[in-house]
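ok so i was messing around last nite and threw this chain in just to see what happens. nothing serious, just curious
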Amino acid sequence: MGEPDDNNLEDKIKKLEKVVEQKDSHLRSLQHVATHYEIILESIHNVRNLVGAIMGYSDLAITDNETTKHNEYLREIYELCEHSKELLDAVLKPGYNPKKENNIDINEIITNSISYIQPLYRGKKKIKEYYDENLPKLKEAVPIYLEDVFLNILKNAYDAIKEQQEGFIAIRTYSEENNICVEITNTGPPIDASIRELLFQPFVKAKDGGTGLGLASCKQIVEEHGGTIEVTSDYRGFIVKFPDEN
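result:
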C-alpha cells in the first residue's frame, strides 16, 4: 500500500468541518425559530384568555330586556369573541378543526362579515350590495373561516377608500360556469403594480401598517374549500369562486 495523501486527508477534514459548521448554523436557526414559535403560542394563549374574559363580562352585562340596542351590541361582542376563540383554538390545539357545516349561504356569510366590520368605520363608507337570491348553497364549509376571508377583503377595501369622500365598496354574488362567485371591488386606487404578482404570498403588504398575512390566509382558506381567489381586471378588488357541487 502507498503512503496516505496528507493533502487529500486535510481536504476531507476541512470539508467535514464545513459540513459540521453548516449543521450547527442550521440547528441554531431552528432553535431560534422554535423559541419565537413558543413565544407566539404563549401570546396567542394569553389573548385567548383575554377574549374569554371579555365574553364573560359581556354575558354579565346583558340584561333581561332583549329589545335594547345596548344588549344587541353586547351580543355582537360576545359572538365575535366566540368567533375569535375558535380561530385561536385552530392554532393552539394540534389537530383541531372547527366543525364543517352543510348548505352554507354565501350571501349570509357576507352580510355577517359586513356587520363585523362596519362598527370600525362608524358607517362612514357606503357599501353597495347586489345579491343573487337564487345563489346555490355551498355543499360544505367552515362558516367562521369564510367570514374571515371576506372580513379581510372588506377591511382592505375600506382602507383603500378611506381618503375618498364619495368612495364606496361594491359586492356582487352570482353563479357562473358551475361556480358560486363573490366579487368585491372598491373605488380606491388600484393595487400597486410592484406587488400584483406576489400579492397572495405571506408578508407581502398591500398597504401601510398591514402584516402581509391577510390575503395569504384568504388564499389558503379559499383553496382548502376547493375554490380560487384572484384580483379583478382593474386591480381594485377580488373575485372569489367556489365550486357548485349541488
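not much to say yet. The beta strands are 101-104, 126-130, 138-141, 168-176, 179-186, 228-231, 237-243.
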